[in-house]
Each structure stands twice: as C-alpha cells, then as structure tokens.
Amino acid sequence: MRPEEITPATREILEAVRTLEPEIRAASALIEAERKLPPALAHKLMEAGVFRMGVPRIYNGWEIDPLGQVRVVEELSRIEGSVGWLSMISSAGSFIAAFLDAETANRLFGNVDSVLAGQIRPPQRADIVDGGYRLSGTFHFASGSHHASVFTCGVVLYENGAPRQYGRRPEFRVLLVPRADVTLVDVWDTTGMRGTGSNDFVVENVFVPSAHSTTMSRQVVAGPLYAFPPLFLVSHAGVPLGIARSALDFVEELCLKKASSMPGVKLLRDDPAIQETIASCEAQLGAARAYVYATLEDLWATLCDGGKPSPLQRAQYRMMITYSHEAAKRIVQTLYDLAATSSIFRSGRLDRDLRDIMTACQHRVVHLRMYRPAGRLLLGLESEEMMF
After folding, report:
1. Alpha helices, DSSP H only, in the chain?
2. How many domains does the chain have?
C-alpha cells in the first residue's frame, strides 16, 4: 500500500500505535505471563482507536476503510502478535454497530472504551420471549474478554421449544450482552497468542432486548464499508503480515551480528545459503502483501462505486485472508530453522512469532479449509458457507 493512499484517519491511528510501540514492547513479558493486556495499556489502545475501527463515524467511531484497518493491525502485529490480534477481533466486531438501530448502537459502541468480545460459532440456544430473547449458554474463544464492555453471542432462535426456521435453516442471530451479565471462565492457557485472554464466558438466564440483536443482513448506516457484511473479517489479514515482518526483522538483525559455524564464513550474513533464504522470505512476504492489498483495492473500488462483489471477488477476498496466514506460517517456520539455537528461548521474539502464527492459523476463518468454499465460487457453485 503506497503511503499516499493512507487516509488521514488511518495515519492518525498509525501514529498513535507507533507512539505506543515502546510501551507495548516493554509490556510484552507481562502480556505473555498474565495472558491479557495490562489495564493501563488496554485503555491507551482504546484511546488510540484500534479497537473501534469499524464503528461508524456518526457513533464517534473511525469508520476506517478496509485497507487502513489491515495496515493498522499489521503494524500492531509486528510489534506484538497478541495486541494485533485483539485489535483485529474488536474492530471486526465493531462493524455490528452499523446494523443496529441508532440509539442502541450509540449506547453500546459510542464511547472510547466500548470494546467488543464474544463468539458466534457454534451458536447456542435463545428462546423467543416478549420483547426479546432469553439466553443461557457457554461460549468459547472470547478474545479480549478482560477489557470488553459488550459480548456477542451467536444463537439459534427457539420458539415453542423448537428451532424457528428461516428458509431451509434454523434462524440465526447475534445477541449483544453487557459485560455485567457475563461470567468469565479462565481457560486460556495456550501455545501462542497467550496475551489475548480468549476465555470462555457463560450467560445464565439473561434477557436480551430485541434491539440488542442483529443478523447483519440489514444495513442501517449507509456507506460502502457496511455494504458487504463479510468485510468485517478483513483485518484478519493484517495479523500474519505483521508477525512475518517481525520474524524477518529479528533474523535479519541477527544475521548482522551472529557468528557463522561455516568454515571461512565470519557472520551469518556472509553465508550464501542464508542470503538466499532471507531473499526468498522477503519475496514471499512481499507477494502475500501485494495479494492482500491488491485484492482489497479491487473489492473496495467496487463497493465505493455502489457495486455488488462478483463471485470471483468474493472468492479472492477469502482466499487472500487464508493465503496470508499460510504464507506467514511458512516464512516464520523457515526463519526459525535458519536461526537455529537463537530461536528456541521462550522469551525470544522468534519463539513468540512462531507460536503466535501457529495459533492464529487454527482459527476457523483463516484455516486451509476455507479454500473449499472459495473453490466452489470459482467453479460456479454457491459457497455453502456463512459470511462468504
């Protein structure tokens, strides 16, 4: 993405992120150990706007274009994978504000400290009652659970004891539940992305007003950012790009100072095989970045012109999200092998990058299985996948 294409709003958030970089890096060990963001840092990130990039401007949000959102998440992920992930998750969730009535959206998303966590898959049961829904259930993988103000809950609606049908499928909705009505269950002890606090949460017999729900199928706020609902997934692509950049920066710096074990070779940088590997990794990352931003430029132009994405654009959009993760994992694994014993210390940057990218690649949205519905679109079939 060329510098001149970065909007003023995106530039403002990026400048805030770079100002916070020393503080984020200084908190890295604490983020890893406590498996969540320190409250003071979380609040500074809220003030920087990184958790509300998808909130419409009319609700005091940033309404950042998709390329800008990816760029911000990429930069944060370069600094600290867990922080980039948290920005991605909450910004993705913040799109929901555009699909709620104005009063509800402003109340739930209009403040600087309005941050969303939660989970929509697999859906739990919600019973239809007067004025809304009655919900009980346990939800998993609520990234940002410790600093969130509202939680999304994916549900299937039940009426008279049975799932209510919407066409050929049970009716699905997303319910929004305030933090006060949620009980966290600390289960987040993982290989990577340890600082994301992606815990389980339990909702017990909570009434959710109808206004606090959406299917994200009816756009309330006008504008191209909300015209194609699957666009809320876009900032996923920034996470792998940033992590791969972090790993490359670490290894390239290492090569300038670490002695080589090869006879007649002084430093790692003087080893032809290492030179080849570094160049190959840079090319792979450059290709992945070009694919991400070119795909988004094309899709965004269509949306800004008031058009509907074609099946090819829809397929390319989801393919680039998956491919960026696939490429980053390959790059980081290659660099991990290249750095040898400099890779293995748990407190080291490269160890963290490897664990973070391996964990990120397990997410359903970016998993290699997502090539299947994309392939269906390319072959003239329906994707048979939600939000595709």
Report:
1. 8-26, 28-34, 39-48, 66-79, 81-94, 102-109, 238-255, 272-304, 311-339, 349-360, 371-378
2. 3
d(CA 66, CA 2): 14
- Note whether 221 and 331 are within 8 A (CB): no
For residue 255, what is the domain's CATH number? 1.20.140.10
The answer to whether the CB of 256 falls within 8 A of the CB of 271 is: no
Q: Which residues contact 158 (CB under 8 A, 6 or more apart)?
A: 125, 126, 127, 128, 164
Beta bridge partners of 259: 267
pLDDT digits (tens, 9 = 90+) for 180-236: 999 999 999 999 999 999 999 999 999 999 999 999 988 999 999 999 999 999 999
Beta bridge partners of 139: 201
- Token pair for residue 348? 């080291």
Please give the radius of gyration of the chain, using alpha carbons only, rounded to the nearest integer: 21
Domain that holds residue 252: 227-378
Tokens standing for 118? 């939660």
Q: Give CA–CA dist 248/230, Å, rounded.
A: 31
Last residue of a domain, one of 61, 77, 109: 109
Residue 83: both structure tokens together: 């922080």
Same domain, 102 and 144: no
d(CA 8, CA 15): 10
